[in-house]
């Protein structure tokens, strides 16, 4: 980055990541802690559907950056053979997961060939996931492939890494600038791959810059940038990325970072760059042995946890629903406890595959990393010098800039999270100054639907005396309604230009409990929690952000339960 009036931090005083990744031939506990936190955040988001978590903690960008750093380290040690080793670590756990998933789906009624180009040949992506593998038409089948986009994107980045690392080391800043520009070009249609692998190309472009930041971290390039210049660059990136996210969220009401192309890359990069440069001491972690051990276990079984957490979440929801749990805090605590308990069962049953993939002795519980390998690297004794007054002042200035950088990103993250929650006093998620375009509504009952794999219209309400297509909910008559059995899924393709789904939800049968979920392109955008007839009808207004398809999902532990979607309609700009 050139020279600066701000002196760089003396290498003899501050540990440098360098090509060893910041540890003395072993695990870097700082990176392990962040990887474990990212994994917990991903599980929490998918189980509870809290959109604000995506902007508060952009975990996916961080996971790709940490993976990029490890990939660069592997390429330095073993050359191009590192690609095969990474695939060996990735694919066997996926094969175990796929064997269970595909068998379960086939046994429970998957009979229709995948709609993509290869038909049943699409099953090949369960073996080599260059595309997201297909699943069946069952209402719960989505849980087995909706998160596999990460595995697919990781695979492509691993395959491209030898060429990417060579290009990065020859033109580091040009490569990083191109990686930042690429998703923006995709967003505005300047670049459009199209075709069979369009989704994969888009995902790779979104997280390529974070992957390259991992390269920069491994090579020690980030440490060589003067602290002031680095902090100012990150602050500029954070303000730009947060502003982009805020603009989209303010205008559309949707703050899901996964659906904000371009802004996702910029905000994730700012967060990742802060994490990779700002390294507080972690002496406290070793003193809290249960937490230290938990971090170690989460890292040792990360692939298994990621693969199985969403099916565990669906199963946990069905188990928790009959419980008489009241209160928001209690419901959240019980659901998370149930999910992690089921994840622990999955880890016990299938975690040993990760040991085999890493050519370790299979174990129910991975062995501890020796203390020598867990310590943070220290400079070699021959390089340690007594710091001069200038060096001490330099370190103090660097710490000041690092704290300012971390504080800026933290404040912006909390602000975005608050906006996503719509908790800012007097402020809505849509700008009051924005003129609302004329709206056109399309009743859901007028659109073709796919109900649990069969194309059909919803049946008329079962209540005696009800007119066809109408339903009475707590004394209010709604002329159009869609009634669904629980559990079930209704899939519908909204008309072009539609941004929101509006409906009233209620339970159609006495003494039962039903949970309502809305998903746009397999991303949860609304979740009601468990409802019963004792609850009043709820009006929902859900952003769907021009989704290609929308799923209305109901679940219940009781047979014969009915979920009422009263007057569901898509709202579109005219």
TrEMBL record:
Stretches that traverse the bilayer: 50-73, 94-120, 140-159, 171-189, 201-218, 230-251, 257-276, 297-316, 328-353, 404-424
Region annotated Disordered, chain positions: 450-471
Coiled coil: none
The Glycosyl hydrolase family 98 putative carbohydrate-binding module domain, residue ranges: 437-572
Keywords: Membrane, Transmembrane, Transmembrane helix
Pfam families assigned: Acyl_transf_3 (PF01757), NPCBM (PF08305)
Protein name: Glycosyl hydrolase family 98 putative carbohydrate-binding module domain-containing protein
Species the sequence originates in: Plantactinospora endophytica
